[in-house]
Amino acid sequence: MTTVLSLRGATKRFGGLVAVNDLDFDVAEHEVLGLIGPNGSGKSTTLNLISGALRPTSGTISLRGSAISGLPAQDIARRGVARTFQLVRLLPSMNVLENVMAGAVFGHRRRWGHDAEAQAMRMLEKVGLERRAQAPVGQLTYIDTKRVELARTLAGEPKVLLLDEWLAGLNPTELEEGISLIRALRDEGRTIILVEHVMDAIRSLCDRCVVMSSGCKIAEGDTEAVLSDPEVIEAYLGTEDA
Amino acid sequence: MTRTEIQQVALAAALLAAAACLPFVSDAYLLSIGVTIAMYTVLATSWALFSGPTHYISLATAAFFGIGTYVTGMGIEHLPYWLLLPIAGLIGAVLAALVGIATLRLSGVYFVIFTLGLAELVRQIITWFQNISGQKGLYVLTAITEEHIYWQLVGLAALVFLTGWAIWRSRLGFAVRILGDDEEVARHAGINTARVKVLLFMVPGAVAAITGAILAPRYVYIEPSIAFTPMLSFQVVIMALLGGTGRLWGPIVGVIPFTFLWEAISGTFPNQTTLLLGLSFLVIVYLLPKGFVGLMQSARNRVNRREGFA
Ligand SMILES: Nc1ncnc2c1ncn2[C@@H]1O[C@H](COP(=O)(O)OP(=O)(O)OP(=O)(O)O)[C@@H](O)[C@H]1O
Ligand SMILES: [Mg+2]
């Protein structure tokens, strides 16, 4: 198995708070890695470090052997890391198709004109939104905004996908659709880091999990083994219902 | 090109051609207003190309404009006139790029202050040079008439519209729209936002410098306080915002009424112009935050909605 992404000693301080503390883990090609942990444990911050939204205070992050830590977000995106945001971010002045084209035109694999439009349409079909291509994003339901954002990240053909609580806030039917959508991505052999709270989703989608608590990695391994680890259960129970 | 695009281009060409006929039918007074309108159309439209989508308010117009007038003022005796315009444009673009590289990483507030300071800085440098060399101002004596100036400005306006339209259709234009919506998304989509902003800022830099170079012969005698007047920068901002920056043709909708209004106001209260300019700025920002364009669009949306219910 080849390692696509690796973190070594990744650390992020916000003043006195260490949001991510000396984090090490690897993501193998075609792997879906769950990054889990209680609220405020540093999951989103970790994704921010990987995507370049934040610079690590120390440590290195490398993509297929070359360091990306410290690069600006646009360079990391061009090298093949794409992400969704915990709070969905769409481009409000554009329609659904244009939102997705943003990823196709400027992402890892760049296209333009009809080529970009066709790629964006293919991504919309993949997420089941091809019939809303011309809709303004303001008219979409919550799950559809999430689909648009996912299609945008897929459109640039990234090497690694970072999904920050993509399934959060969905009702039970939507959740089922969402899980099967991500399972389809997994079956295509994509490399994904999945930050998630929904246990069913983690169980059915993740090959392995890294568990964080207060910025530190407290467990790592096969999903079932990790979820039954007493320290992990303790971390979840100590803060809230898991 | 789609059909509507062809129609829009044809309409724009027809309007520009009609505008170019003004000198044949107007008296000297109307022509001088025509020159003012053409000048502000060029300045405000190019200003909005950058400031509209990026939301960076540039007050550097006077700096670029002043440099352009000095290019003509100093060069007219040594170089053919037609060469001075591209030289002014080049200097404006290069200066804009340098300013952009230095400041566009900063937040909007710093950018506003810096661009305002830039006009003052360049003005002081020129004043200082003139003190050393002992001359006060420059005489620009040419055979160029008001009509010539007007036609050059209309030509430049055509060029600005064409540039704006070409940018809008390009990858750069798409990048700018994304950036205008959400800079964080733009960066994560792989857009080098700093470069996009610098490239775009070069457009108003070049255009304002060329405009200054075209207008220099009209002043006959140029000195720093005329060439670099900060009022110019503020007026451009006000007119562009009054018209609206969401469309390429937005600013011109602000330029025309404001020019006439200003003509009346500054004639009646010549000593209170700065105060009145500030007041009109506040009124526009509070009452018409998206300009006439925004007003028209929301009116149209309301009509559409009503038809939708019927
Ligand atoms: N930009 C910031 N400045 C200061 N503190 C921050 C910043 N971003 C995050 N933090 C803090 O870092 C810690 C980790 O936050 P983070 O958002 O990474 O948690 P999380 O695991 O994603 O939580 P959740 O499950 O609620 O999304 C929190 O205490 C948070 O308040
Ligand atoms: Mg989070």
Q: Ends of chain A: how far apart? A: 32 Å
Q: Can you tell me the number of structural domains of chain A?
A: 2
- The CATH H-level superfamily of the largest domain in chain A is P-loop containing nucleotide triphosphate hydrolases
User: What global shape of chain A is seen?
Assistant: globular
Main sheet record of chain A:
6 strands, mixed
Proportion in helices of chain A: 25-40%
Q: Could you tell me the mean pLDDT of chain B?
A: 88
Order of helices and strands of chain B: HHHHHHEHHHHEHHHHH
Q: Please compute the radius of gyration of chain A using only Cα atoms.
A: 17 Å
From the alpha-carbon coordinates, what is the Rg of chain B to the nearest angstrom?
Answer: 20 Å
| Parts with pLDDT < 50 across at least 5 consecutive residues of chain B | none
General description of the model:
The complex is a heterodimer of chains A (242) and B (310). Chain A is built from 9 helices and 10 strands. By secondary structure, chain A is of the alpha/beta class. Chain A has 2 domains: 164 residues, Rossmann fold, CATH 3.40.50.300; 69 residues, no CATH class. A two-stranded antiparallel ribbon of chain B has the order 1-2. With 310 residues, chain B is an all-alpha fold. Chain B contains 15 helices and 2 strands. Classes of the chains: A alpha/beta (242), B mainly alpha (310). At the A-B interface, α2 and α3 of A face α8 and α9 of B. Magnesium ion binds next to α1 of chain A.
